[in-house]
Design goal:
Length: 504
């Protein structure tokens, strides 16, 4: 970062498809998506200013401040600390916020101790506070309408964060038949007069494409503005969602040093189960700002579009979409990958825009050999349904530790990575959801006999098996009334939004 008269210059953000126009961090958070359809990226990357030794002695909240202040430079210290304090509080069921559990030769970073028992809580607990602070900073009078597509977790986590937050409304679209029973129950029982949930007759990619289309509709934006509304996003395309995700990788490294499991400066690998690429991109950013990370191991499920990309250099969404036991990864358009493509294209917005155009027009793009050289930090592989179930069963039988289906994809791919490379570096595996969220898949992986039980009987058995308490998030939905029964066709998404907002 540039220093001027002893004060840091504000870090600005530009669009991956733009022509040099820049916005502040708070403006990028408010907008969510750039006007040209691109994603906001920092114009330069800061470096960690505090030593790992110091970070090792800090709480999660203190680490969050040290990381986030580097990226959100137009927030004052008081504003940022207030957002952090409001986010990472008693809504998490552990004071450490993101515990590390050692099992079977790896460190599982548990990111599911928040309100909705999935990793999305880590960022979506703070995003509403960042957004309302950003609105005040930029003198926004419009009501902010959060428009989000979800493959199961983001929707609930975003609604839990934004429920009854003054000056905001939130609309969530999810694939009606493409989420787990617990995920769906969590969404359709969501409280809050400003929340609205709609199941679509299609898959997650349909929901995501529909939301992007609504975002990019300038005529609709004018209609909204006239009615006193403006759109923003809670998906990981929002930089205000991505930056808090960098925090937990820094915290994990500092924890390993604190516990003397690694030496300061020792390289580690990070394995992330991903569909949308946001969570592993955050780990990549952690590396770029100075965290000693070697390989970023990208774990895909049967919808292995990312594995194929890392293997061939071609991103091809023209394939059969498969509904799996890890539904949050059932994605064929990894929207956050665009940020990586922009970077390996030498921050060339035109080159990146052409590739994104090729993807939306012809369903694929191929990167150049030069760009492939920029992928050396990454390793991609995938686990099919059988391998995912085996990873759950084996880990439980060997260690007594129970993981969910998404984390199992990562654990399986990590084993493949070690077998392929013989690389034995200490490895953090992002554990992205509680096994309680996918109780049927988890329990039947351990023993087929559990398949005869209903959803909450499975939860009771999981409590006994894992020796962990039933999360509050699950207790709540046992008796919570359904508040959202809305279903629409993909083509009716815009009309549904307008209807709820009362815009005719």
């Amino acid at each position: 970062m540039i220093e001027k008269e002893g004060k840091k210059m504000n870090l600005t953000y530009t669009s991956t498809r733009g022509h040099g126009e820049t916005v502040t961090a708070s403006q990028a958070i408010l907008k969510g998506l750039a006007d040209d359809g691109g994603l906001f990226v920092p114009t330069s990357l800061p470096k960690l200013e505090v030593s790992v030794e110091k970070l090792a002695g800090m709480s999660y909240q203190e680490v969050a401040y040290e990381v986030m202040k580097l990226f959100l430079t137009d927030f004052t210290e008081e504003e940022l600390k207030r957002c952090i304090a409001n986010a990472y509080d008693s809504k998490f069921d552990t004071e450490v916020i993101a515990p590390l559990v050692q099992a079977d030769g790896a460190y599982f970073l548990e990111l599911f101790h928040g309100n909705t028992i999935a990793f999305k809580d880590m960022a979506l607990s703070i995003l509403p506070h960042l957004m309302t602070t950003a609105a005040k900073k930029n003198h926004v009078d419009n009501e902010i309408v959060i428009l989000t597509a979800t493959s199961g977790d983001t929707g609930k986590a975003a609604m839990a964060g934004f429920a009854d937050v003054p000056g905001t409304r939130i609309i969530v679209f999810y694939p009606k038949d493409g989420v787990s029973p617990v995920q769906e129950k969590q969404m359709v029982t969501q409280k809050g007069d400003n929340t609205f949930v709609v199941g679509i007759k299609g898959n997650f990619d349909d929901a995501q494409t529909g939301v992007k289309k609504i975002f990019n509709d300038q005529k609709l934006a004018k209609e909204l503005d006239g009615a006193g509304f403006q759109f923003s996003s809670a998906n990981s395309i929002n930089i205000g969602r991505l930056v808090p995700q960098i925090v937990y990788y820094v915290y994990a490294y500092a924890t390993l040093v604190k516990n003397e499991q690694i030496k300061n400066g020792e390289l580690i690998n990070i394995t992330v189960p991903t569909g949308n690429f946001g969570n592993i991109l955050a780990a990549y950013y952690a590396k770029l700002i100075g965290l000693p990370i070697d390989k970023l191991i990208c774990a895909s499920n049967t919808n292995k579009v990312l594995f194929d990309f890392f293997t061939t250099g071609t991103y091809d969404k023209k394939r059969e979409f498969t509904v799996t036991s890890s539904p949050s990864m059932d994605i064929l358009i990894s929207s956050n990958l665009e940020r990586l493509i922009y970077r390996i294209a030498g921050n060339d917005a035109e080159k990146n825009a052409a590739m994104m155009q090729a993807l939306s027009g012809g369903g694929e793009y191929t990167i150049t050999e030069e760009m492939k050289a920029g992928l050396t930090d990454f390793y991609g592989n995938y686990a099919d349904e059988k391998e995912t179930a085996e990873a759950i069963k084996n880990l439980y039988e060997n260690t007594g530790y129970v993981i969910d289906t998404h984390t199992a994809v990562a654990a399986s791919v990590y084993k493949k990575y070690v077998a392929d490379t013989k690389d034995a570096k200490p490895t953090v595996i992002a554990s992205t959801a509680s096994p309680y969220k996918f109780a049927r898949s988890v329990m039947t992986a351990i023993d087929k006999k559990y398949d005869a039980l209903d959803e909450f009987e499975l939860v009771d058995e999981l409590v006994k098996l894992s020796n962990t308490p039933e999360p509050e998030a699950v207790k709540e939905i046992r008796t919570a009334p359904v508040r959202h029964n809305n279903v629409c066709a993909v083509g009716a998404m815009e009309a549904t939004v307008k209807q709820w907002l009362g815009i005719q």
